Amino acid sequence: GIENTLNTNVKVPDVLGINSVEAKDILEKLGFHVSVLEVRKPNKKYAKYKIGEIVDMEFSKPNVVLGGIPRGSVVKIFVADEEIISKSGSWMRKVLDND
Questions:
Q1: What pLDDT, on a 0 to 100 scale, did the predictor assign at position 42?
Q2: For the residues of 8-59, what is the DSSP string, one character each?
Q3: Residue whose C-alpha is closest to residue 10's, from 53, 59, 77, 76
Q4: Which of 3, 13, 56, 86 is the most exposed, fewest CB within 10 Å of its CB?
Q5: Are 80 and 46 in contact (CB under 8 A)?
């Protein structure tokens, strides 16, 4: 029944800016399978994060009614290395300097 579906749907918490180890732990405790991946390209939105923090997340679209995704779904969380973060920052500064 619907109750059953409700029990297996979990809202994915926003773990952006949280240390990757902690973020993985939080998501796994909720019953998700977690992949920690590295972003390959700079993006100005990464500039505000530190190395080892989650800069991006990817998961299947939440169910509109239930507002979550099924337990056991894969949630990808992304970290950026020093180079990506510094490039993201310099890219952001370039944009600001052009104003």
A1: 94
A2: HEEPPP--TTSBHHHHHHHHHHTT-EEEEEE--S--GGGTTSPTTBEEEEE-
A3: 59
A4: 3
A5: yes
